[in-house]
Amino acid sequence: MTTLQHLHSSELAAWLETHQAEAFDLWQKERLVTPLHVTFDTPLALENGDVLPSFEIRLELYGQINPQRDNVILVCHALTGDAHLAGKHHVDDKKSGWWDDLVGEGKAFNSQTHAILCTHVLGGCNGSTGPESTNPQTQDAYHTSFPPITIADMVNAQHAVMQALEISQWHAVVGGSMGGFQALEWGIRYPNAMKKLVIIASGACYSTQGIAFNAVGRHAIMHDPQWKQGLYQTHGTEPRQGLATARMLAHITYVSEDSLDQKFGRSLIEGQSTLPTQSSEAGTSFQPEFQVESYLDYQGQQFVNRFDANSYLYLSKALDAFDVVASWGKGDLKTAMARIKADCFFVAYDTDGLFPPKETHRLVDALIALNQSPSAVTLSTPWGHDAFLIDTTELNAIVPAFLYEATRELSKKHNTPLLNRDDLAPLLSLVEAHDSVLDLGCGKGDLLEILKAQGTHPRLLGVEQKEASVKDALNKGLPVLQGDMLHTLKQLPDASFDVAVLHLALQSLQDPYRVLQEMKRVATRSVIGFPNFGFLPIRLQLLLRGRMPNSSALPYMWYDTPNIHLFTLKDFTTLSEELGFQQARRVYRFGETWQARPRRAWGVNWRASYAIYELV
Amino acid sequence: MTTLQHLHSSELAAWLETHQAEAFDLWQKERLVTPLHVTFDTPLALENGDVLPSFEIRLELYGQINPQRDNVILVCHALTGDAHLAGKHHVDDKKSGWWDDLVGEGKAFNSQTHAILCTHVLGGCNGSTGPESTNPQTQDAYHTSFPPITIADMVNAQHAVMQALEISQWHAVVGGSMGGFQALEWGIRYPNAMKKLVIIASGACYSTQGIAFNAVGRHAIMHDPQWKQGLYQTHGTEPRQGLATARMLAHITYVSEDSLDQKFGRSLIEGQSTLPTQSSEAGTSFQPEFQVESYLDYQGQQFVNRFDANSYLYLSKALDAFDVVASWGKGDLKTAMARIKADCFFVAYDTDGLFPPKETHRLVDALIALNQSPSAVTLSTPWGHDAFLIDTTELNAIVPAFLYEATRELSKKHNTPLLNRDDLAPLLSLVEAHDSVLDLGCGKGDLLEILKAQGTHPRLLGVEQKEASVKDALNKGLPVLQGDMLHTLKQLPDASFDVAVLHLALQSLQDPYRVLQEMKRVATRSVIGFPNFGFLPIRLQLLLRGRMPNSSALPYMWYDTPNIHLFTLKDFTTLSEELGFQQARRVYRFGETWQARPRRAWGVNWRASYAIYELV
Fold it and tell me: Is the complex ipTM higher than 0.85?
């Protein structure tokens, strides 16, 4: 069992130096963690102009801070989370911390090599200073005289912790949902304070619908007669029903419609029927009959036992008010995002209704419009927004690749896979040593992996639609965006890259014309590899056999081929001219060998089975 | 100005005979409508076993009931609607009825030719008997001693109106949302009581998420201390705040996330700021700051002025309990839907979160699995569920085609467009006079229109993806399903049709193999027309010019063609054999002429530019 340690902020760094080895030992052996309660008697200036004369922060640390103090990962929690990220305080605790599955060796947050820090937010009700804390000036609880708190205020309080720990740069700042807001604010407000940012199931602001749901929750709390303008006494006379209503409502927005349906459907509570067979006693017929109703009731009642209504009001207002476009961008998201210096990784969930993938992608699009190379993935999940808390396997599978250099840096020993990529050689011959490269349809990142190993390319970025391939590429430590090729191209500024590569994909695109047009705008040179439908054996197969041709370059049957837009070298030339391209270098495949543009170019349209064109 | 007419149910038919001409005159001249209040002193047996000894129904009628009494359209209203469908009671009324735009000449509900009836639901609070009505046995308001009401009870009360009007069959029953539930219950419970059913933005039951939101709304009402177990006195001491919370919440689910965003975004209420610059007075910082908040507040306050909290509880419970699978299907939707005899038309909205299109399509799929020929369309709208109340232009554009035989029956005079369809002649030559025909990718319904005009085909059904084409086909009075071809095929039982036609579409399908496979299962014969990529000029274009061919049958450029799976006659033959088809009749296009299978079939693969195959 661990006991809460009360420390003054000035003692924090020294206390850890003395105790963190012992605490780590306990963590390793029994996954027990020691919560720390740190008092800052330095004033904290808030965004609204008020000043908190002093404040307290609850925090937990997993792993050991190294002597260089450069291995700390700050994890920011969501609306109803707290500092208790993982493990237990007592071996008999029923539940572990809220992201327990993510902390440990080989997990997203590797406590063997890194120190994972989680601090409870300002304005909350689980240890850090909030509306139910005692106002040192009056010795009464603040209640609603507590000043309005913003996401920036939470970050500034965390920044005070960072200073107390004598850390100049986090290894990373990570957060989901409201935690993602904090991570984003960190990246913009303190651009040099972290190497990496991981933003999960979050966005640039809360949606209008999100604000609307928050407003209804607040309406329920504030019209509970027990709220009493916020001056209720805790323990007994809180506005329990109003807070329960707010929570029940919010809970619906955290889970996907399908997951509710799969989990409960129309199942009734045992003994209940939707058609009472006799007149009900007054009111009883409105009691929960469906399991989903009693589940929500339970969620509401559980929540009021652990959360404070005023804190809920303050934090929900902080969510609504957060808006980096307004506070940092003067109305423009790019202006805000331009401040970020950290490497960024974004995770969205396809069924998230609170932060739909398109909200996360506004952040991604802003960064690539700024010639940054963020990574991003949209994970498939049945769970909706709560997936970031539930689908921890997925996060453990992809976050380490992004977070830890050891994994990201291509080991020189990894030569074996590279050796077997002869077929990439002709493509590589058109990429110069110092080119920045955009690989469209990068698959598992084979080409980018080689380019990265060359170590000379100032910027590499992959774009890939398939989730599994994106994960493989991420696991090679490559920056890769999951998404539609054309959409991504449209976000990129003119001449963002030296080279854009499109290998073996043009014939399978819905709109090859627009993609080539955008490549021309975005890259100085375009390198495009494709099978030649004009290859003589193909023509002859069609002519003589009267059948759609098959070949090694076109191996599919006509009815299940992804190659939906077939074309010949001549067709390609015509289109590239129409788009205003000049053809520069070309490499052809004749039989089993590759050959740079032959002196006599005549006949390539029937001689080449495959071609790679450099267009400028 | 009109005055509410109090009538006994036995007087209703006679009163209308005497007064409807005069009332219609007023309607035509000033769009004024006379509300009727009808007392039934016959007992009404409720689904739960209780009996209402007497009950009252508020209703409105637009147009005149004809002597045959077969021109009446019953419109069922949604949760918070009422009998006041259209027009005004007084010229100075600020607002017209809730579906005003839909009633009138040339509108969805043509009051010139038909009599449109709307009755207020049992359990409601706008005229018909409900929880705040006086219990005749106690002379007190029922409050929560009112028995639980179901959708079936509402329908049975409407059925009593039908009997009082001496109507044996409605022309149609129409409803959206909860009104759609009533229409569906009508179709299943009283299969002979209507010719047509129109079900809009509705489904077979409320979703789990819908129940969950309702549960939160009820929680808010029932935990408002003013609710007092439902025994509150109206006018002054109702549970206003609880009901407002419920309404605010429900309102969010009625509108799409995008429409909220477009309408309000993050706009602030004038004078408000999300970052107060000074310490707020206790509690004031939680007041609405965003426009969407004050909008919701307004919605909530408006609602409590016109709606009763107990009614809301009763009706929301009726929504939750409705489930035709349980009540009519013994667990199987098809069993329930098999009772329906009416012609059905379903309208879904793409952004509807409360009844997503897939919910409506469960009903459609059940009907086609039963070899019925419903029509269905999914309309694009920014508005979400409320589109059925807002996007009235769309409904006026498509509902009349379905509702009125005059439009649906192909006039013999409509010969002109038919004459210009020579290109359909070869296809028609493979369809026998008494074939039932499924037209896959029916476009605007050109083929089906001709077949319908022949008047000999027992069943015709079109499937089309494009919304605009579906509307055109509906306006020709054809039964047409908007949806994915493969999905629709999968719902159809074995051998549902004599002929399935796939004309000019196979080469543009994502998965031609599966579509052909399903056609074989679903139809006795398949008729498939397609351009032949083996046509000699095409082969020679590729061989000699080294370019992807263009021809009248393949007019697109390679990079923007919808023809993504090109194939030759031989390719097609191989695939059809692989699928176990036998080739029966064939028609080829040679040059400008069509020819049935030539005696010498040799050489067709290079001679024919286009072919139509009959497969069995």
Answer: yes
